[in-house]
Design goal:
flat; mainly alpha
């Protein structure tokens, strides 16, 4: 007996697809603009604008992903705390120098 195939629901709704198609058409005609009024030249940016518009209208679109940790670097204080745990930090300070610096702050 063959295994039953699982049916998956659509990730994006039809309305979202229409919004993206509309954005792509506007890009092609040169009327699609980004936030500050500049012309959109990138295909990926046009798709992102279409999905954003669909999201605002309430179409079925997955929520935006959180930015990766690479784009959100840790704060200076967090780096200092991590440095205090090790013998030397990124900047070459010793633990004693960091403790002294922290007490001054």
């Amino acid at each position: 007996m063959p295994a039953k195939k699982k049916s998956r629901s659509r990730k994006y709704g039809k309305a979202a697809g229409k919004r993206v198609a509309s954005a792509m058409r506007r890009k092609k005609h040169g009327t699609l603009r980004s936030g500050k009024g500049g012309k959109v030249k990138s295909r990926k940016q046009a798709i992102a604008i279409g999905l954003s518009e669909a999201r605002k209208k309430g179409a079925k679109v997955p929520r935006k992903r959180n930015p990766s940790p690479k784009l959100n670097p840790p704060s200076y204080r967090a780096i200092l705390i991590d440095c205090e745990r090790s013998c030397h930090c990124v900047w070459g300070h010793t633990r004693h120098q960091l403790v002294a610096r922290r007490s001054r702050d």
